[in-house]
Amino acid sequence: MSNKWINEKTLGGKAKEFKWTFDSIDGLKIRPNFIKDPEKSIDYTLENLEKLMNFVFINKRVPLANNVDKLGKGIEQDGLGKFLYDEFNENIEIAMSSSQLAAILVSIDVFDYNEKKRNMEFWLKNIDFIKRLSNEINELNKLK
């Protein structure tokens, strides 16, 4: 049985819609609106997500830090986008998807943030991201 896709919006001032789904085998899949192919997604394995959680845990509070121009020039500050950019071999789409990933993690109460539309900062609220992602998908699938 395939999971339904959840509709979500990014947290910034120009909130953008996207879709996501999760399962404990394939991990988290995000379909942001900047990817035009409706079948293509940005995929995060459980290992990728665990590394991100550890990064945020160690750094306490982290900015979004996903400015494409700054990433390309190597001058972006350490944060979610830069971490993903570095972790995924300088993949700009992955770094850009940090906006969607942060919105998901805030919506399921894994991250908390300063509620700013610019200069957002995130921190861990609950480390149990697998359980929370699974619960969100399971609740939606019950409604099928």
Topology as H/E string?
Answer: EEEEHEHHHHEEH
Uncertain segments are: none
Total strand count, please? 7
Radius of gyration over all CA atoms, rounded = 14 Å
| Count, helices | 6
Q: By helix and strand content, what is the structural category?
A: alpha+beta
Helix content: 25-40%
Domain count, please report it: 1
Q: Please give the alpha-carbon distance between the first and last residues.
A: 11 Å
Classify the beta-strand content into a percent band: 15-25%
Task: Give an overview in words.
This protein has 144 residues and is an alpha+beta fold. It has one domain (6-142). It is built from six helices and seven strands; from the N terminus they run E-E-E-E-H-E-H-H-H-H-E-E-H. The strands form two sheets. The protein has a four-stranded antiparallel β-sheet with strand order 1-2-3-4. A three-stranded antiparallel β-sheet has the order 5-7-6. Helix 1 (46-59) crosses helix 3 (80-87). The radius of gyration is 14 Å and the shape is globular.
List the helices and strands and how they pair.
Elements (H helix, E strand, L loop, with lengths): L5 E4 L7 E7 L3 E6 L9 E3 L1 H14 L2 E2 L4 H6 L6 H8 L4 H5 L1 H10 L3 E3 L7 E4 L4 H14 L2
